[in-house]
Amino acid sequence: MRKRKYEPRISDVLGVALCLLMPLQLGFAALTARLDLSVLSLFVRFLLQLPVYLIPVFFVFFAYKRLGRTLAVLPRTLDYNRTAMLTVSTFGAVVILQVLYAAVFPSTVPISGVARDTSVFAFLLLSLTSVVLPCVLEEMLFRGVVLRALTAYRALLAILISSLVNALTCFSLEAFPIRFVCSFLIGSLYYATGSLAVSVSVRVLAGSAWFLAEAVSVYAVSRYDLFVRVLVAACALLLAFGLPFLKATVRALLADENDAGVLPSSHFWGIPISVFLILAVGVQIVFGAW
Questions:
Q1: Segments making up each domain of the chain, as ranges
Q2: φ/ψ (deg, to 5) at 71
Q3: Would the pLDDT of 111 be above 90?
Q4: Hey, is 79 helix, strand or coil?
């Protein structure tokens, strides 16, 4: 009897890509650990950061092309006004949650390395390499590739798994909960709006808020508390803008609940994705022990 040819699952392709991501991230962290904040070092960091996320992204697209598949295109079901409201609301929710969580776990506050002797050009380059570029690359991988691919199963499963993957790759037990929750919010926004630019905007804005907070703590430390209070108050107002659309967002996430065209969740599990999850959890534990 002829054996049936094995057809790789979507999760198999993602699992291999994510297994590639982990050593690339660890290698990047090791190579850049001793770099200073000079312009040359920041430029080297910029160049080293690109392949960390682009290699897994290109691998997925190449594998899909070989398998004759294409990534799902998320529909844009909201108009521009609703999209804008949900975007600013999600930004407000993310920053408020991060501030509250950082009050309990100060080690989760992102540190870029701003110093008083940092030149203007180095300051701008630092913001690019520590805020803008990581946000764009991570959203391209975790939302633009992982979440889109997983929508072949269920929307809610796609958002949960992509958020879990995003949180596991931060290599910090303390930061894991807040990364997961914020990733879930941003993933929900991406799925509801169908726009990667929207999720990138939220990430960049949230990262910029913390970058500015760090700059204030360096250049005007006496005004840091005032800056944080004003930031939280402004984000609370922004959060209120999106509350009227919360019901529509939840409805969008559950729209495929009875769709017979989606793959069963049991079809998700395979060896590559299981290996990645085991390795990622193991790295989390090891880094947490350190």
A1: 77-255+284-289
A2: -70, 145
A3: no
A4: coil
